[in-house]
Design brief:
mainly alpha, globular, Put_MntP
Length: 183
Amino acid sequence: MTAYIGEFISLIFLAIALGLDAFSISLGLGMQRLRLKRIALIGITIGLFHILMPFIGIILGKVISMQIGQLTELAGGLLLVGIGAQMIFSAFNHQVKKIIQPIGAGLIFLAFSVSIDSFSVGLSLGISGVKTALALLLFGAASTILAWGGMLLGRKVHGLLGAYSEILGGSILCGFGLKILFG
């Protein structure tokens, strides 16, 4: 019984750790003018990807080599830096329409880039033999809740910072992308 409780507690801590990147990225996103429905959709999408990516990692854990895992981290880091740089650029040039917005394909790319680290965690979980369903549900719930919290907090900060909030949000995205690339 104690082993199950210990595994559950460690899975909760792992889920929170994986969700913290969703929080920091969502903090930057929340500084854009997003409606509450959009915030809810973004959080749910990020949560679903935090379930899907480790599930794929668990299934493919024994097949995929470490080199392919490093390539997905590279792609995700570059994507976050690109989105953040575009946000910073559009803050200085108000005539430029945003290239990547958190709707449609932009939302899918965002959720994918945020959940890449959970893919590599899934690779290791597939080998260790943890309770897969429990781990996936905890990953999805923690990342959804943390993403919502980040975006709601970002909305409040946007009201305080005004025009500078988009620059700050883009800087957060760029910083997190650089952390993934050079981490």
